[in-house]
Amino acid sequence: MQTEFKRKLPQEVLALLPLTLFFPVGLMYLGLLCFSIAFVVSEEFKHKWENIRQHAMFFPALGLSLVCVFSTLLNPPADKEYWVQFLHYQTYWFLLPMIAIDAGAWQTRAVRNFFIGALIAATLFFLANYGLLPENTLFRSYVIYQGNKSILLGLLLALAAAWMLHELVIHRNHKMARVLAFLYVLAALILCSKSRTASLLFFLLLMVFLCRNFRFKFWQIGAVMALFACGCASLYVAANAPAPVTCLAKEMHDRYQMNGLEIFKNRSICTIQQVRDFGQQGSVSEDGMRLEIYKNTWHLIEQRPWTGHGVGQWMPLYKEEARGKMSENMTTPHNEYLLYWCELGILGVLALILIWGRQLFEAFQMAKKKSPYAMPLCMLTVSMMFAGAFNAILRDALFGLAMMIMLAIPLANNRESRA
């Protein structure tokens, strides 16, 4: 009995980890510490190593690390911060112990706990929207916009809503409860989360979900064309709409008392108009600095496109490139593809794309075998690829570790076909 308990202990901890993502980051780190302890206590290291070695994600993760080592040989460390920056590229190694754990009922519990966390988060967002939530350490990310943590909460809500939609289709039980939970989380995402990236991500995942049965029928093609026309019309209207009073989410909420839907609408208009203005005049605002960051980072890439500038070199080089500009003090290019290309060269960005491409390939392989985790893996990978274009989704541990925890759920099932 004791041996069985020790063997299943990592599974029990893994099943709880998705719930920790909706609370202060310290709780996630505590959960990962508990998993590490459970991993050691449960022993069976030879079996776990075989699971890792045979897993589809082992060699892509190893490949990225080798690219980092190769980059180090070409670009020797310039300062003592090098190893800290080097570790930022090793996020996928945190996934490997999780996928060493055998697939089982814990995956279902993990998904359920993820949904419970999303429902709690949705409730907290609604309470914060009506001023009923105290601004303390536990709830601060729900009450005020706190950058990466607030963005992560929005991304998790978008992913949860998409996964709920998938579960609604594949499961016949508790239909009404599933529909209500989906609508509740979706409403919180759109009305309260204040994240443009997260709201757009949900609609992208909705397209992925709808395309699972795309057969190029006339009505399907017509629907796609209609959506495209609506999108173009929306862009035209937004580009020519009156400029919002401010483009800063915090100011919209604190000074102008806008609700989540108004903030999403105004920030969307701001984004489109900022792209227009940057293209015409090269001007940027405080909220639209990313366009300037992308342009300056691309200039750095053009200097050394093949070998890159070396691990951890983006920040000091960017300060020189952007000296005197609004974005001079930025600590990240807010784009994972540009960061990898700038620091690791062409091999770095290819290694990143290969990792995400491998995840998509595994999702398609699982879909052929009618695995219920195929669509969740596809949605999660698309989320990472999309969010990586606007945020440091792997370089920042807040995002990266959260993504590894979520990846462990569908990827553990992958091993059944490799046993």
* pLDDT averaged over residues: 86
Largest sheet: none
Percentage of residues assigned to helices: over 70%
What order do the helices and strands follow?
Answer: HHHHHHHHHHHHHHHHHHHH
Membrane topology: Multi-pass membrane protein
Pfam families: Wzy_C
Protein name: O-antigen ligase family protein
Domain O-antigen ligase-related: 183-353
Short description:
Keywords: Ligase, Membrane, Transmembrane, Transmembrane helix. This protein is mainly alpha-helical and 419 residues long.
Structural descriptors:
WaaL-like; 20 helices; 419 residues; 0% strand; mainly alpha; single chain; 70% helix
Structure description:
This protein is mostly helical and about 425 residues long. Among the domains are: about 55-90 and about 290-419, no CATH class; about 220-285, no CATH class. The protein is about 70% helix and about 0% strand. It is built from 20 helices and no strands. It is globular and about 65 Å long. The protein starts with a helix and ends in a 6-residue tail after the last helix. The mean pLDDT is about 85. Keywords: Ligase, Membrane, Transmembrane, Transmembrane helix. It is a multi-pass membrane protein. GO terms for molecular function: ligase activity. This is O-antigen ligase family protein.
